[in-house]
Write a structure and sequence with these properties.
about 475 residues, ribosome biogenesis, 6-stranded mixed β-sheet, 15 strands, single chain, KH_dom-like, alpha/beta, GTPase Der, 13 helices, elongated, hydrolase activity
């Protein structure tokens, strides 16, 4: 198990910036706005000789109510599991009363403590550190996280506190099926993640837009490993005005691309909205397996449930192959069936084919319904072979395949889907025409053919 280093401090002191520098990623959302980070964000630092886990936390504002109170609980959980705490301060703002209050609380925890004085770029380091020497902490490290300066000094300060028997490299075991949970704001994505984990891993609030970043959480359920990705809610483009929300939407789209299975969470009381259909469209553009989950099912009457099912049938006809599960993230009903649907979708998306079974299926499909004629000729489908997985891809070779009607392409897709029992995954068919060996070659007539051609022309003129 890797040692854990928690980054703690007031809002907007540069914790997320330092997290990205240490992990050499852009996983943490960074902006010049206080209170942007709310959940715990984990990453692996390999800059020094020994790797360790870095935990980015939300800023402590001193308020125990609302979102700030929920963020403070997440910080407490990060400190409790940390081996070392890096207390970050702002050199430009100077030592503030809130910094002293946070430090008093950290000292009660009995954890090794390092004070990182950030934003020292352009300032005299000695003068900047002198103000924070009054805190009485032995280790003060000057930083300029936005420029990546001072990280070597921080790593040297951390090294004595890291366990000597720490593993040299992070575990490379399979993290399981990557499952992204997406949907509109306030449909219960974070509640679903917490319910699956059995703990308050991410911040949950009735306020829409609580989650701003994509949080990855590994879990093990029924002997199988998963990597859950909690994402920010996506609204209609016309309503997205703040730059922070635009970056959150980009993070969500990146999470869809990185996932193997995407759970699109809907509000059962509202049915399928236009934004829900658009979100499913983004998933299909990335060719990811998808499961439709209607949340808040427990609060509906019998009539409302019938209306919801009708809405799903009518509005989601373009993904009729996707499984639909009705759940209650708050009470935990339907979660077992949801994870089984995720397993089935993943198994279908990663299914391996062989050429012989594909050719038998293609022959049966061709005999059952031949393609319509094109300029008096019927397109020929000669043979097929596998072209990849996630999504499963079938490459079909033949002649005049470019002129195949869209209806016949859908027929082939549905035939293969039914034949191989593919559930919850898109199916990609690639058609390739065989090369014409006589293309570009001019037919040169022999002398006898030329004489015969001239006789035919003279006879035609006489008539």
């Amino acid at each position: 198990m890797l040692p854990v280093v928690a980054l703690v401090g007031r809002p907007n002191v540069g914790k997320s910036t330092l997290f990205n520098v240490l992990t050499r990623t852009r996983d943490a959302l960074v902006a010049d706005q206080p209170g942007l980070t709310r959940d715990r964000h984990y990453g692996i630092c390999r800059l020094g000789d020994s790797p360790f886990l870095v935990v980015d936390t939300g800023g402590l504002s001193g308020d125990d109510e609302g979102i700030d109170g929920l963020t403070a609980k997440q910080v407490e959980l990060a400190i409790a599991e940390a081996s070392i705490v890096v207390f970050m301060t702002d050199a430009r703002a100077g030592l503030m009363a809130l910094d002293r209050d946070i430090l008093i609380d950290l000292r009660k925890r009995g954890k090794p403590l390092i004070v990182a004085v950030n934003k020292t770029d352009g300032l005299d380091e000695t003068t900047s550190l002198a103000d924070f020497a009054a805190l009485g902490v032995a280790t003060l490290v000057p930083l300029a996280a936005s420029h990546g300066r001072g990280t070597d000094g921080l790593l040297e300060a951390l090294e004595p506190h890291l366990p000597a028997d720490a593993p040299e490299e992070a575990p490379s075991a399979d993290l399981g099926i990557r499952v992204a949970i997406v949907g509109r704001p306030n449909v219960g994505k974070s509640t679903l993640v917490n319910r699956l984990l059995g703990e308050d891993r991410v911040v949950v609030s009735d306020i829409a837009g609580t989650t701003r970043d994509s949080i990855r959480v590994p879990i093990e359920r029924d002997g199988k490993k998963y990597m859950l990705i909690d994402t920010a809610g996506v609204r209609r483009r016309a309503r997205v005005e703040e730059a922070i929300e635009k970056f959150s939407v980009i993070k969500t789209l990146q999470s869809i691309a990185a996932a193997q299975v995407v759970v699109v969470l809907l509000d059962a009381a509202e049915g399928v909205s236009e934004q829900d259909a658009t979100m499913i469209g983004h998933v299909l553009n990335e060719s990811r397996a998808v499961v439709i989950a209607a949340n808040k099912w427990d609060n509906l009457t019998k009539y409302q449930r019938e209306q919801c099912e009708t809405s799903l049938e009518r509005r989601l006809d373009f993904v009729a192959w996707a499984e639909r599960v009705f759940i209650s993230a708050l009470h935990g009903s339907g979660l077992r069936e949801l994870m089984r649907a995720v397993d089935r979708a993943h198994a279908s998306a990663t299914k391996q084919f062989n050429s012989s079974e594909l050719n038998r299926a293609l022959e049966a499909a061709y005999e059952g319904y031949q393609p319509p004629l094109v300029r008096g000729h019927s397109p020929k489908l000669r043979y097929a072979h596998p072209g990849g997985t996630n999504p499963p891809t079938i490459v079909i070779h033949g002649s005049r395949t470019k002129h195949l009607a869209e209806s016949y392409r859908r027929y082939l897709e549905n035939f293969f889907r039914k034949r191989f029992k593919l559930i919850g995954t898109p199916l990609r068919l690639e058609f390739r025409d065989g090369e014409n060996p006589f293309a570009g070659r001019k037919n040169v007539l022999t002398e006898g053919q030329q004489r015969k051609r001239q006789r035919l022309i003279r006879n035609a003129k006489k008539r």
